[in-house]
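Worked Example 4.2. Consider the chain below.
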Amino acid sequence: MTRTIQQLFDLKGKTALITGGSRGLGLQMAHALGEAGARIMLSSRKADDLEQAAAELQAAGIDARWIAADCAKEEDTRRLADETLQRMGAIDILVNNAGATWGAPAEEHPVAAWDKVMNLNVRGYFILSQQVAKGWMIPQKRGRIINIASIAGLNGNPIDMKTIAYNTSKTAVIGFTRTLAAEWGRFGITVNAICPGFFRTKMASGLIDQLGEGKMAAAAPLGRLGDDEDLKGITLLYASDSGKHVTGQWLAVDGGVSVVLGAA
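Applying the procedure from the previous section yields the following structure tokens:
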């Protein structure tokens, strides 16, 4: 029998692991998945932040737990997957969200900083996806992987933004998403990406203050930055059976900025 729309979006009985989940976009997505019924495992580097985030989710009636891990380190990343499976018994939904950036002109960008960004933003996504897929999704013949890319991965930068490593990493995430979707579709695993525009997160706040929030909002056709609700809908679509026939795709959630900049 064809399911209702409420049934298609229902995540009861599902478990989601969200990296970079203690604040900002990661915590917003955790709320979305938890509000739809999923059990939540949060991860980031700092235990204090995770404890506070888990308490916020629990206060909203969401089953939330946490594991501190640095996804720039292979041993931490593999431990995160294994410990989540031990404690939760499943990882049906993986949200690769942990990320770093670095601002410097390309001709002066430190190689060590380049490696730091790539290790977390790309290598970490690959290692965690591989570990989760081998440990749960491939044997179960099902799973949802959501990779957080960025509109920075769709275009070059405005002249006053100098984040070549970050932009390159996010372009790589889109390629990684599409390639993995093609390879793992036979296991019933969907792999999709979200490309957020500007949200007032801790990572983006410095740049927003530097360029001016009003100026940045005015550059978007919708005339606003992203808020605490704007990633919830697409996250739930990708994570639930409502999106079971969608894979290898990316969607910009940016108020239309990428349209103005001419993304393909």
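Residues 5-254 form a domain with the Rossmann fold fold (CATH 3.40.50.720). The chain has one domain: 5-254. Compare this with Example 4.1 before moving on.
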